[in-house]
Amino acid sequence: MPKYVTKNRKYYASRGLKDATGNNAKGTDPKQLVKWSKMANIVPALKDEVVRRIGVKVTQEYKYDKDARKDWERTMAMAIKFVKMNVEEKDTPFAGACSVIMPLLAQSCVQFSSRATGAIFSNRIVKGKVIGQDPDGQKASSAQRVADFVNYQLTEEMPEWMPETDAALFGLPVFGCAFKKTYRYVEEKRNYSEYVSAMDLVIHPEVTDLKTAKRATHYLELTRNTVKERINSGAWSDILEKIGEGDQEAKQTSQGEDEGNYIFLEQHRWWDLDGDGYAEPYIVTVHKETDTVARIKARYKEDDIWLTPDGKEIAKIEAREMFTRILFMPAIDKSVYGFGFGQLLSHPNDAINAIIREIIDSGIWYNTNAGLYTSDLLMASNESGNLEFEPNEFKEASDVDDLRKKFMMLPAREPSMTLFHTLGLLMEAYQRLGMSVDVLGGQASGSNQPATTTLALIEQGLKLHTAVMGRVHRGIGEELKKIYRLDMEHLGRAEYYNVMDVNEQQEVFARDFNSESVDITLSALPEDVMHIQKMLKADKLMEMRQTVVPPVAQAIFEYWLDAMQIEDKERFKIPEDYKPPPDPKVLEILAEKEAAGAEFKLKMEELKLKEGELKLKKQELDQKHEIALKEIDIKKMEAAARIKQANKPDKPADKQPTKKGKADGKNKKSTGK
Description:
It is a single chain. With 673 residues, this protein is of the alpha+beta class. It has helices spanning 9-15, 31-37, 48-68, 70-84, 104-120, 138-157, 161-175, 224-232, 240-243, 341-367, 417-433, 451-461, 463-490, 493-500, 509-512, 531-543, 550-563, 584-647, 659-672; strands at residues 126-130, 177-185, 190-196, 201-202, 215-222, 262-271, 280-287, 292-298, 305-307, 314-317, 323-327, 371-373, 407-409, 518-522. α4 packs across α5, α4 packs across α10 and α16 (531-543) runs antiparallel to α17 (550-563).
């Protein structure tokens, strides 16, 4: 809570400022802003002159903003006519001429809406998000509880949320943006969310962001009963006597009812009520025809006021935004209204309509002849004097010999082939712009085409849609944050504990509704624009489920159930102590590995045996070789001995040769030589 310090009286006196009561602003206290922030209606606390001036200003600036966007409104009026397919009778080029409207823009909007709705409205619209570290898992538990409670709110406590969001997703591609208005419905003590068409929220087209806009005016048409209810509840001042019995501009009034409706302008704007030179954010509700102010409500709370460090000045006031913009595509000039099929496809659709009408009118003119005949032609005609024939009809004529001279047929041609070719080019370009590719419309693109190829074509065709869904995701995410903040401010502990079946002694409320540690967002991912994409992701995760830790495996299983759109998922919740049996495929693989290992061992043993046998054979061969070598050596020795023996001379057995005899023998040999 900020500290509020009374400003210096001399500061206000020197500026000559006045507050909303009409008195000099001397001594204005910031606590006055706090007082106004808690009031249901500030009008009774203000002077009548100030209230009248505010009413006139609101109406004038509304008309200024509306006039500034007249070109945009003209384009949107054309788009609405094409989407609604409002056919008007034509009398050119002839009475009853073709006025067909091709449903091209309507088809594109319906296709986008159906895909977006299917992606967002899943079993769990909201999921929790942890901010920062979570070592003990308390933040994750809080995020899960908050997500469960908000899912309960959106589906049970706020029954209008889904149909209003559905309507917003259909209007989004037409206008280029859609607005959701989220606030606390005090009478019913709950949050409320409604779709506001861009046609009913008047903003200057040069505004680029709602947060920085000087004003945004919600055009309201209310019944007399609704006005009286708001007066009786104390939310509005008693203005019934001033606003009459109904406004001619109201749609219901033009239907001839006894009690007409009233047009009110609910302008979210800035106004300096306390006269300190700094404008504060307020909601001003004014009756359009009489400029009568019904209500002024502060658009801020006490904790939205920021003071300067010395506590003497207001540094800023943060405005509470009720409106959330969902953007289709950003506009080239960054206009707050964005860019949609209404701007992108209306003029091509108009050109296609014109060409088709010309082709059909040309065919009608060619098939139904027209011409002139002389006044002296004596033949039965209709009351208007025209000659008309029906099939198998013959008319009486006085002279048929030279009847052709009494007629002149007007020239007529068959429908132009050039128009047909031009129409084909426009249709092809239109389909690409409008995401109306055959494969996206559920039509087969070719026989024997692999599923992966088809999915790749779908993914390529959905690039634009995926980008838009990213912006839708951000827009609805901002609205969910507003709902979460409203719960923090208005939700009772008893209601929360009762819905979540939590014991009050656990004291989890303060921890759960702490924006610094817990947040919420959409469960659907922007890229999951088709159910088949989510199913494929889930199947891939299930394939790796056996290889991860149990908590991750449980999260994968829950994601798979959500992708399969199983409603009663609690029946399939896996107990914490459950140990899944081994996968038969894994067992088969292990058995194959074991068999392969045994076979490998057997082969290795066989190899070892063969290796031993080879060693034994080698040893035998070595032994035989060694024996053979020894035998060869013995034979060599024996041969050498025989040779040596053969070379010796014969000697007497009883005499031994003397030395001299040896010498004589040598001499003889030398002499013989």
